[in-house]
Write a sequence for this structure.
């Protein structure tokens, strides 16, 4: 799946270091979802709330954003990541999200990232309907 224009524009506006990290993350994320060939559901990626996010059947799965720091970095966020049982992912927010932070593209642990992406498809909480359910998250089958 080629990156949509809004994500390319997001990358173009970044500093060279952040752009390298985001390009590497986008490459890995897109390749992972391309390899699923619709077996996991409808995949969509777009800038959502000002940051690149990938969705499965309308449910946010993974995205990234830049943080000013200190130190400045790129945060990779998995919406259901606290359920992955991955010590390298740290809890973020009051729901089920977890994150990893990178200051260079070389910091991205490719084997871990592949495993996290696999888990992001298998383990999902229903963020798509969180408003309808008045803030209650249900695990998707």
């Amino acid at each position: 799946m080629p990156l949509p224009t809004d994500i390319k524009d997001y990358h173009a506006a970044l500093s060279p270091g952040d752009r390298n990290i985001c390009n590497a993350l986008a490459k890995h994320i897109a390749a992972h979802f391309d390899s699923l060939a619709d077996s996991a559901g409808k995949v969509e990626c777009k800038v959502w709330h000002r940051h690149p996010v990938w969705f499965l059947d309308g449910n946010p799965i993974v995205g990234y954003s830049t943080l000013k720091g200190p130190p400045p970095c790129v945060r990779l966020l998995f919406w259901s990541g606290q359920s992955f049982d991955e010590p390298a992912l740290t809890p973020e927010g009051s729901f089920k999200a977890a994150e990893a932070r990178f200051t260079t593209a070389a910091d991205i642990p490719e084997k871990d990232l592949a495993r996290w992406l696999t888990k992001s498809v298998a383990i999902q909480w229903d963020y798509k309907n969180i408003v309808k359910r008045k803030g209650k998250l249900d695990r998707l089958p």
